[in-house]
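Holo model, SN-glycerol-3-phosphate. Inputs:
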Amino acid sequence: MEFFIDTADIEAIRELCSFLPIDGVTTNPTIITKSGKAPEQVFAELEEVLDEDQKIIAQVVATDYEGILAESRKIASLRGGKNVVVKIPVSREGLRAIPAVKSEGICVLATGIYSPDQAFWAAKAGADYLAPYVNRMCNYGDGVSQVIELVDTLATYGFDAKVCAASFKNVDQVHQLLAAGTPAVTVAPDVIRAMVDHPGTAIAVDEFTSNWRKTYGRSTLEA
Ligand code: G3P
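Output:
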């Protein structure tokens, strides 16, 4: 499975990649605006901070067919095209553009998905990844179950498209999708930190150290 960080916060990416096997980074126009940096700077920093085997997944801003095509080519040329994925929203223009972008050999992630039906059409259009917005879908129904069902639907039809679940607001949403075998997720840094930093672990580690120190007078295995 693939686990991406959903952010343009370079320091957060550096921090999380320093101890977790992260498969890449996803951004979108809103995420980039929140970085307070120019998009060119964000892309340059992503290229610098990520290894070549970690994916850079960036989104088009244009909303018309020709513009989506032109921006897809531009994004696909980042880092010499190695492990770059272009995000295209599943608007009508986006759905029309997906096969054209794919025909140029560009890897496509269909984004802004609010329903399994939109995901179905993006898969049929040839998208490599589908990004349902789990938490936002929860405003309209049971987003988590819908995404789990979507994974089954894709398998039923033998679509190659891989679900990359996005828009998580808490660890439980991520947990449920991981437990169901979702092939990819993209998660914001604060939720990733909450997944790994359980207070119980810190208490347990302190207890191990303190008992060891009390008994052997040191805090390492060997003197
Ligand atoms: O990757 C999709 C994501 O960035 C949307 O998340 O938190 O704005 O619902 P959110």
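The chain has eleven helices and eight strands. Residues 2-196 form a domain with the TIM Barrel fold (CATH 3.20.20.70).
Archived with the compound record.
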